Amino acid sequence: MNDIIIAGIGGQGNILLSRLVCQLFMNRGFDVKSAENIGMSQRGGSVVSYIRVGDDVGPIVPDGKADILIGLEMSEAARNVNKVNKDSVIVLNNRFVRPKNSDLKKQQILKFFEENFSKLNVINAHDIAFELNMPKAENITMLALICKEGIFPFSKEEILRALEQVLTPKMYEMNKILVEKIYERY
């Protein structure tokens, strides 16, 4: 997984998730480049992070070259479909926020991804984060589940180390409990 796209809306923790993924790869000694397109993120607008792992690469993932698309929100994942190809891994959070002035439906997006991508994974991070009493931690929930399922090759211990490196001590302790519960229950 050398070229990664994380797509979501403002307030979902896209940038933090991007920083954590970068930290995970850097902890294994990889050269990592990243960039964000944050638009109107403070108003629930589109947020896209690009992560590229490897030497001699720029920070923006070229169209059709993403190895994995992580959709923190379904319509934003669909909006960034130009970055993936038929062999890309698609990981969707089962969360849908209908874009303004659109009649797009959640089932339309799911059907599109099901029909066009054989490596589709739908994760219910929204509900799991609520169930574990951490509703603002869908991003960390997604990361833990993606790693636990083997989509990313990182262990629970590696996730906890990256969290400790990136977060404040108080935030680390809260998210450590979340990751441990995910590995125990799901």
TrEMBL record:
Q: Which UniProt keywords apply?
A: Oxidoreductase, Pyruvate
Q: What GO MF terms are annotated? A: oxidoreductase activity, acting on the aldehyde or oxo group of donors
Q: Does the keyword Cytoplasm apply?
A: no
Span of domain Pyruvate/ketoisovalerate oxidoreductase catalytic: 10-183
Q: Which SUPFAM superfamilies match?
A: Pyruvate-ferredoxin oxidoreductase, PFOR, domain III
Q: Which InterPro entries match?
A: IorB_Oxidoreductase, Pyrv/ketoisovalerate_OxRed_cat, Pyrv_flavodox_OxRed_cen
- Identification of the protein by name: Pyruvate/ketoisovalerate oxidoreductase
| Annotated source species | Caldicellulosiruptor acetigenus 6A
What taxonomic ancestry is recorded?
Bacteria, Bacillati, Bacillota, Bacillota incertae sedis, Caldicellulosiruptorales
